[in-house]
C-alpha cells in the first residue's frame, strides 16, 4: 500500500474543497483550505520526498497555468485530471504528466460512451490512462457519478463493470464522494467492495483523518489499495502531520 499525494486546483489556487458541494452554478463550494503557496511548491515537496503516483486535479476552468506549473515541477511524477479529453490528453503527457485521468468525458447521459473510451485509449495508450470511478451510494449499491460528482450514472460499481472498464486503462482512482473532504472516517463498505472486485491498481480517496485510517484501508483493502489524503494533512490545514505520513509510506512500500 502506498500514500499518493494530491494537488487540487480551483480558480488557479491550491484548495481543499468538499467535492460534493462543487457546482457550476449556485452557492460557492464548501472550502476547507486555501493555500498561500503555489502548486509547484507542493509538487516539489512530493518530488523531494519520493512520493509517486500522485495527482493534480483541475476543478473547473482557470487552472491550466497552475496545473502546468505543478507538472513542470515534478515531471513524470504526477497524474493530471479535470477536463481531459482525447484531443488534449497527449499534450498533457508531453508537458510532463505521468498519466491522464478521465471521468465525465467517457460518460454520457448516464452511460459509458465506449466510443470515447476507445478514443482515449488510442490517444494515450492503456498504460497512460487512469479512469476516475468516483461513486456515491444509492441503496445498497454504489454508482459512478460524473460532472463534478453531481450526476449519478447508471453504471454500478461491480465486478463486471470494473473488469470491462479495466481493459481500457492502467489504474482506477475512486473518490468516496459521500465522505470526501469531511475527515469523518473512510467508507469501509466501499473499501471492502473494491478490494474484492477490483482487477487493477486502485487509489482510494475520502474521509482519511489519521494514520489509523490508513491502517484500516490497508487491512480492509487487503493491501491492494493505495490511498490519497487531502484535507486532513497539516500542509492543507488539517491535523495529520504530512511528515508522519511520508515516514509511514516508506515503511509500507
Detailed description of the structure:
- The protein is of the alpha/beta class and 253 residues long.
- It is built from 8 helices and 16 strands.
- The chain has helices at residues 39-48, 64-73, 89-95, 114-124, 159-166, 188-197, 211-220, 242-251, and strands at residues 3-4, 6-10, 13-17, 31-34, 54-58, 78-81, 100-102, 107-108, 111-112, 129-132, 135-138, 141-146, 151-156, 171-175, 201-205, 225-228.
- The strands form 3 sheets. The protein has an 11-stranded mixed sheet with strand order 1-16-15-14-10-7-6-5-2-3-4. A 3-stranded antiparallel sheet has the order 11-12-13, with no helix packed on it.
- β12 and β13 (151-156) form a beta hairpin.
- The model has no long low-confidence stretch (mean pLDDT 92).
Number of strands: 16
Q: How much helix, percentage-wise, in residues?
A: 25-40%
Uncertain segments of ≥5 residues (pLDDT<50)?
none
Number of helices: 8
- Average of the residue pLDDT scores: 92
Order of helices and strands: EEEEHEHEHEEEHEEEEHEHEHEH
Beta-strand content estimate: 25-35%
Radius of gyration from the CA trace? 17 Å
Largest beta-sheet characterization: 11 strands, mixed
End-to-end Cα distance: 6 Å
Structural class: alpha/beta
Shape: globular
In spatial order, strands of the major sheet run: 1-16-15-14-10-7-6-5-2-3-4
Summarize the structure.
With 253 residues, the protein is an alpha/beta fold.
Give the key terms.
single chain; 253 residues; alpha/beta; 30% helix; 26% strand
Secondary-structure blueprint of this entry?
Elements: E1 3-4, E2 6-10, E3 13-17, E4 31-34, H1 39-48, E5 54-58, H2 64-73, E6 78-81, H3 89-95, E7 100-102, E8 107-108, E9 111-112, H4 114-124, E10 129-132, E11 135-138, E12 141-146, E13 151-156, H5 159-166, E14 171-175, H6 188-197, E15 201-205, H7 211-220, E16 225-228, H8 242-251
Parallel strand pairs: 1-16, 2-5, 5-6, 6-7, 7-10, 10-14, 14-15, 15-16
Antiparallel strand pairs: 2-3, 3-4, 8-9, 11-12, 12-13
Helix pairs in contact: 1-2
